[in-house]
Design a protein that fits this description.
The complex is a heterodimer of chains A (about 375) and B (about 375). Chain A has about 375 residues and is α+β, with helices and mostly antiparallel strands. Chain A is about 20% helix and about 40% strand. In chain B, helix 4 (about 75-95) runs antiparallel to helix 6 (about 120-135), helix 11 (about 210-215) crosses helix 12 (about 220-225) and helix 13 packs antiparallel against helix 14. In chain B, about 35% of the residues are buried. The chains are: A alpha+beta (about 375), B alpha+beta (about 375).
Chain lengths: ~375, ~375
């Protein structure tokens, strides 16, 4: 077999695919790329059995064939070349990579040993939903929600972002049991109600590869395919029931606290320096016109205290939060000039929403407080 | 200027042995390894034995050659701990700030206590007498402005000595001592100091700090300062607990997986109970496994901070099943928790099973504190 390709173009392609190559795996074959050449089109695959990535490039080649090559070694050598033509040639069960600089020989494996990668849309009669969405819009939805994804292996359902498709719209939800983000895109609607939990790994890769071009989503019961302009990501879904997030959104939070996002965010970041590192607890003492925010570390004997102007319509309230969680929430609310905290009592969830509602989007974050009496 | 006492129990292990068996008085007593067996070292020896040239940490074989008529004992470690605690309880009656440096060494901060106890020298003598009368244990006390100096002072006149290094006399006191008198200067450092012509601590003090910095690095500067009578003036806080562990050695080596796993279950309960009593959560669970041929493995896994028996047990079980691969019986199994954070009062969104379990486990802990560990058991589901 023989084919030629430009080094820079190949590097760009491999760079996009390599995130799916696992670094530690009980199946060493996964540390390879699968190369498939069909009618002058080279398609490269990589998978860690949870997600798989695939992308294609035109090459100069006369034959059709496929082979499995060591991913990192190939990527590193291609990356090191300046703009040049790279010739791939197989002989004596070795793959020769030939450039003007020299010849590099790699071992390769037959393609039939590589695990099967699902493909979309599938021919089976299974229900596959199809959504088309702007890439940046999708990226924004993931950016806004993914920080709240849980890390506890004991609760696998929370280790991903929920995509819920219904007549209300496409909803993105992430929670770790302490905070929750709920983002609804009203532009995309569908009959019925279907839930998909996309694992964190797929989301972190998507956040890197999504661009301004449209993305096509194919959603099946077990997998989702994200087809971007030049790359396709297929991920397994988390086959668990997502916790009942609607049931924990409080309805009785009538005290509303409106505050400038940047002001309170800056204050929280300073408090974070003074809060005890293990609990990161800050105290909000809220009155009609100002919030007193304070933090202390008894072990170090340090403490801090700030006042932030606000508009508040409830009874005076003292409530504690994990400053790290508040910081996460506010930094993802930053594009909004003002945010509203809806509160009820020092032990009930606080709702955080932008002060201005948007027509096509609803964003709501939930945060559980930390007890103060200890 | 602070006032630090260093109280050192003289030949502590031997002194305890003599309390337990008065017939040992006046004889050469050596506590340590068995000289017949030939391995190990001297843990402590009586002053009579020291006359033969013995000292602690000497290989037991060498000790036996020097003093073949001595009485060699294995030691009663539990008794030493008991006596050490008794000494500490006498000290806590008088002194608010105590740092226990080892089983037989205490630093006491008596800064400003002259107003309460009058002459500190007399107070030291009173402490010494009280420990002798109540526990029959001799001790030596050094008094100085910092810890290093106090330690050198307690060593200066042993046994049953009291040495008070008055403020301003520090350099004078140290100047004629050999360099090896300084804690932290061992055999190797002594050698290189002698090679450079430093015989006494006075020689070091008369040299310049810069020279010591160059010759010995950061440690050199520290050495120079100590030789000049300076040192740490403040006692350190008792070290924080870094781990909680429970182990079980089987009466007979065990190969039945179910039996071992049930022991693992009990150990999980015990370590988690201890964890909750500290109001902590742990993020690292390790399992220790010793086969009957003494090959020992430990396997650890990092998890989300927890104090739940169930999570610890499941993690431990997973580790154990991965580690227990040989067809050899198990001699010992243990669980070890580390990487602590404070149990925090973060409220949870979902009041599900886990939430209720968390509340329940803290109630279980309270019941056990009141009625004992066996009063209630936690099931798996």
């Amino acid at each position: 077999m023989e084919f030629k390709v430009n080094s820079i173009e190949l590097e760009k392609l491999l760079n996009k695919i390599i995130p799916a190559v696992p670094t530690r795996t009980p199946m060493p074959i996964l540390e390879n790329f699968l190369f498939e050449i069909k009618n002058g089109l080279l398609t490269i695959y990589a998978t860690d059995l949870e997600i798989s990535l695939k992308s294609s490039i035109n090459v100069v080649s006369d034959e059709n064939m496929s082979l499995v090559v060591p991913a990192r070694l190939l990527y590193d050598i291609i990356k090191s070349f300046p703009d040049t033509t790279v010739k791939f040639l197989t002989s004596n069960n070795k793959l020769n990579v030939i450039t003007d600089f020299g010849t590099y020989t790699l071992g390769y494996i037959e393609a039939n040993e590589y695990p099967e990668i699902p493909s979309f849309p599938q021919k089976t009669d299974e229900d596959v939903q199809e959504i088309s969405m702007n890439g940046l819009e999708l990226k924004k939805a993931f950016d806004k929600t993914s920080f709240a994804i849980g890390k506890e292996e004991m609760r696998p359902a929370m280790m991903g972002t929920l995509l819920e498709l219904s007549d209300e719209g496409l909803r993105f939800v992430a929670t770790d049991g302490h905070r929750l983000v709920n983002l609804l895109n009203k532009k995309i609607t569908s009959q019925g109600l279907i839930q998909y939990i996309v694992p964190e790994k797929a989301i972190s890769v998507l956040q890197k590869i999504l661009d301004e071009k449209d993305a096509k989503l194919y959603l099946s019961k077990s997998h989702i395919s994200f087809k971007l302009s030049d790359i396709e990501l297929i991920t397994r879904l988390i086959g668990q029931k997502y916790p009942d997030f609607k049931g924990v959104i409080p309805l009785e939070n009538e005290f509303s606290l409106q505050v400038k996002t940047k002001e309170i965010h800056d204050a929280i970041r300073r408090m974070l320096l003074f809060a005890t590192t293990s609990t990161r607890r800050v105290k909000f003492s809220i009155s009609a016109s100002a919030i007193d925010i304070s933090a202390e570390d008894i072990d170090l004997g340090s403490s801090a205290n700030e006042s932030v102007m606000c508009k508040y319509n409830g009874e005076p309230l003292e409530i504690g939060f994990n400053a790290g969680y508040v910081n996460d929430i506010l930094s993802h609310m930053l594009p909004e000039k003002e945010v509203v905290f809806k509160l009820n009592s020092p032990t009930k969830a606080a709702i955080v929403v932008p002060s201005e509602e948007k027509e096509t989007e609803e964003l709501m974050m939930l945060l559980m407080p930390v007890r103060l009496n200890s | 200027m602070r006032t630090i006492f260093h109280l050192d129990l003289d030949a502590f292990f031997v002194s305890v042995e003599r309390v337990l068996d008065p017939s040992l008085n006046g004889k050469s007593v050596i506590v340590g390894a068995d000289p017949q067996y030939g391995r190990g070292v001297v843990a402590a020896c009586s002053y009579e034995a020291r006359a033969y040239g013995l000292h602690s940490a000497m290989p037991i074989k060498q000790a036996y050659r020097l003093c073949p008529n001595g009485i060699y004992l294995h030691g009663h470690f539990a008794e030493y701990v008991r006596f050490s605690k008794a000494v500490k309880s006498i000290l806590t009656k008088y002194v608010p700030l105590i740092e226990q440096a080892s089983i037989d060494e205490f630093y006491l901060d008596l800064t400003g206590c002259e107003k309460i106890y009058g002459s500190l020298f007399m107070f030291a003598s009173k402490l010494q007498k009280e420990i002798m009368q109540n526990l029959s244990l001799p001790c030596s006390i050094g008094i100085a402005g910092n810890k290093t100096l106090a330690k050198i002072a307690s060593d200066f006149n042993k046994p049953l000595g009291i040495t008070y290094v008055l403020h301003g006399m520090e350099k004078e006191f140290l100047s004629r001592m050999p360099v090896s008198a300084m804690p932290g200067i061992g055999r190797e450092t002594t050698k290189s100091l002698l090679a450079k012509g430093f015989r006494t601590l006075g020689d070091i003090a008369d040299s310049s700090e810069d020279y010591f910095n160059l010759a010995f690095g950061k440690y050199g500067s520290d050495m120079w300062n100590k030789a000049n009578g300076r040192g740490r003036e403040f006692l350190s806080k008792p070290a924080e607990r870094k781990s909680i562990a429970h182990e079980k050695t089987f009466a007979a080596d065990e190969i039945d997986k179910n039996k071992i796993e049930s022991v693992l279950f009990r150990l999980s309960g015990k370590v988690c109970q201890a964890l909750r009593n500290y109001n902590w959560q742990s993020a690292t669970v390790s399992v220790k496994l010793r086969y009957s041929d003494f090959i020992t493995l430990t396997r650890a896994k990092t998890i989300e901070p927890t104090d739940d028996d169930k999570i610890v047990f499941e993690t431990a079980l997973e580790l154990f099943r991965k580690a227990f691969t040989r067809r050899v019986a198990i001699r010992l199994i243990g669980i070890h928790l580390a990487n602590f954070s404070e149990y925090n009062e973060q409220e949870k969104l979902f009041t599900d099973k886990d939430f209720m379990r968390d509340k329940m486990l803290h109630v279980v802990s309270k019941i056990r504190d009141k009625y004992g560990y066996e009063s209630i058991r936690v099931g798996m589901y």
